[in-house]
Amino acid sequence: MHDRPAPRPQAPPARPPAVRRHNLGLLLGALRAAPSSRATLAAATGLTRGTVAGLLDPLVAAGVLAEGEPDRSRVGRPGTPLVFAGSGPVVLAVSVEVDGVDALVTGLDGQVVHRSRRRRDHRGLDPDAVFGRAARTAANLAARTGRTVAGAGIAVPGPVRGSDGAAVLLRAPNLPRLDGCRPAEHAGALGEVPLLVGNEASLGALAHLGQADDFVYVSADVGIGGGIVVDGRVLPGARGVAGEIGHVVIERAGRLCGCGGTGCVEVYAGLPALLGDAGAADVAALRTAARAGDPAATGALARAGAALGTALTSVLHVVDVGTVVLGGSYAELGTWLVPAVHAELVRRGVATGPDVAVLVSPHGRAATVTGTARAVADRVLGEPDLLLAG
């Protein structure tokens, strides 16, 4: 009988990259919510303190995270919280709208560093003119920070196939010269940073994740856009058109819409239709008239609210969520639209009372660029290689 050779000592198994990314995402998500010490993070996530240190200390060394002031308010040895460094990487978001460009620079924790909004009529312009100028505006804003840009995002006024630099803007009903273009190909001023491209309303929905986990977001400016959020995630749809609430048909043989169809809710409750019905020059004038009790203004708002409620009836019957959030210009007119929309939902049997809430966005027209910055930060925080590349 021969003795068996002693087994050779084996190295510990390597941590799979996917597990590392997952764990780092948990930790950075917790830090985005609030500064925390390594010990607190370990207790909150179930990871060991050694794992927490191994994942986060390289980010401290790289200037992404920083040591905060120790918490001396508690008994015992004070913990040293980790925070996102004030000189660390930023993310850049730009929202291209029919009549303007919003740009926003935030830290990875969502803290606003710079923002700008410029009125610019994009109707009749080609992709180079639209996205090229928007990219330069955003890049100039980011350059003012003197900080590394870890990622960028472009929100576009139409459904999108894909979400990266190869994403295609399928259709822009109010900017038809953009149909079929790849926005990233015209946004060279943003440089070589990882790029996210998405629909403006779907990205705008992300700005409202603190209000509800499941909701329908409806935003109006020149057109009506929307996003459907379930379990904290936006539903993109197989063709990238989920949430295109503006083109829900409420009258089969109705008015002609810019999309080529007829009877879409956008031509009854979109901003141009609403202002035209009220005889108002802009949202501010409409709001002033409605506050004064002008019957043309209040009547137009009631009709628009009923039309929107009719469209949302179809949406809620399909997705069955309990919250509707009104954004964009609708947020400025929420005093009149919320009761009109809710009354229509009740009349059509979707809501029986408080079981379906109709809320007003706290972000207004800034929701899109705010949600875009959040989406970019989420992507960056989930990819540790992006944070350590510099």
TrEMBL record:
Keywords noted in UniProt: Kinase, Transferase
Recorded GO MF terms: kinase activity
One Pfam family cited in the UniProt record for this chain: ROK
Similarity comment: family membership: Belongs to the ROK (NagC/XylR) family.
Coiled coil: none
Record flagged with keyword DNA damage: no
Species this chain originates from: Pseudonocardia alni
Domain of life: Bacteria
Calcium as UniProt keyword: no
Record-linked SUPFAM superfamilies: Actin-like ATPase domain, Winged helix' DNA-binding domain
Name of the protein in question: NBD/HSP70 family sugar kinase
